Amino acid sequence: MKHFARLLSAAAISMVVALPAYAETTLTVHYPMPGFFKDVMDTISKKFMEENPDIKIQFANPSATYEEGIQTIMRQAGTSEMPDLTFIGLNRLRMANERGIPVDLAPMIAKDKASMADQGFSDTILKLAQVNGKQVGLAFATSNPIMYYNADLVKAAGGNPDAPPKTWDEVIALGAKIKALGNGVDSIDFRWQGDDWMFSALLFGAGGSMLSEDESKVAFNGEQGLKAMTIVDRMVKEAGMPVFTKAAGEQAFVAGKVGFAFQTTGALRNTIKNVGGKFDLRTAEIPLLDPVNGKLPTGGNAVVILTKDATRQEAAWKFAKFAAGPYGASVVVPGTGYVPNNELAAKSPDYLGDFYKQNPLFQAGLKQMPRMIPWYAFPGSNGVRVTQTIVDNTSRVVDQSAKPQEALDDAAKEVQRLLPRS
Predict the structure, then answer these.
(1) What is this structure's pTM?
(2) Which CATH superfamily groups domain 145-297+375-418?
(3) How would DSSP label each residue in 114-135?
(4) Which of 7, 167, 302, 381 has the most CB within a 10 Å radius?
(5) Which residues contact 271 (CB under 8 A, 6 or more apart)?
């Protein structure tokens, strides 16, 4: 009888040992632009799961662009396919919020207020992912547009690589000289394709705005907008900028066949890798049409919680804070070129404190941070169509089928039609 009792006791102990010590929660995470973010996401999720063994991260198929990403989430909203978290382009947070898709993070932030401040989440940082005062996400990766240049071609054309152009007039003049070198060399790749971000860089850099203050009327076809679109026109007419596709422009620049490239600082790490030792790669701040009042659009994305389940929300909040926190920033910045969106990461030697001294190519984006303003989010449900309208009409200037004012007015007429009616 005692032997049987001992057997039962041993069996009970083995059953207890066999049971998991915790209930595992699996979160599905969606993100865009895997060319920039796959390695970053893999690194962050691996570290997070090491520190949180009760939470497993699995990734949904990533979207190629921010536009495709928001359209995917809007289709999946309210269905079993919707992920628990996603990373949404900063200019699409408004669209997602108008559909009631993101979870309001304010109660979670209020609960963790002391620890949030300690982890580098200042009020300024938090505002990057707010819509009309609602905290719809946490800024994950933020960027601004910079100048990349081939110092070898600049020198061959008679320029000084140590004193890059500071005005668009200087860019265009030197670009023309680079084009004149021949041998298949091109002057400029201005990354206007895909969305309205680079047009915004010219428009905001001239002190302009997309819409009127009350958002009822288009404003980008006024004086500042004309200055912006005229720069695009002059790049083509005076400097011989070709009609590149996005991929063709990237390939030509890293092959050493383009003098200047203007695009997101977020592409810096990939550009460094792809250039290798083919030429002397340099970076500099992008010129502003209004050096005093000019601003720059803040690109990038924010991590957004979608799940309405309380248990999953708790796990999702842990991951969101970790990804957007100092460790996440310390992976994003060197892994891409994005500027730090976390104050602790930017200042602490434990994270990025010494990084910029040792990596001067990354300093251009950092220097421009004081000029960063939100990437404008158009009101209503037609945001993606509005963006495409601006891209299509910029394309007409690049291929010289329309003059700057004509393209602006045509774009303004269509965008006005797509705006919500009061």
Answers:
(1) 0.88
(2) Periplasmic binding protein-like II (3.40.190.10)
(3) HHHHHTT--HHHHHTTEETTEE
(4) 302
(5) 148, 253, 254, 261, 281, 337
